[in-house]
Design goal:
Strand order of the largest sheet: 1-2-3-4-5
Mean pLDDT: 95
Oligomer: single chain
Radius of gyration: 13 Å
Shape: globular
Distance between the termini: 32 Å
Length: 116
Amino acid sequence: MKITDEYIYRQPEKFRSILLHLISVFEREMPELDLLFKWGIPYFYYKKKPFCYLAPNQKKGFVDAGFARGFQLTGNQDYLVGEKRNTVKSLRYYELEDIDNTILVDVIREAATLYK
């Protein structure tokens, strides 16, 4: 079993379900992504560059899907969280039911256009 899989399956059910769903959407939309284990979390790479990390925050109760070039995204700004970060913006999910696949797919597709 890969270290990424071990990490995901060690998460509490709430976070595991969100992570597995997000991974399935990312892999369906962009099969060329590589899911690696970087900086202690699952991290998708695209064209050998950081694309999006998946970070459960158990203390605050959400999973962040943080897009490495998030501040370059123009669409879906009402859903992207920037906080005090310089480059990353994320989609934040507190429950599996919070995931709107249409928005997620739209952000993934726009983010992919930033990698030429």
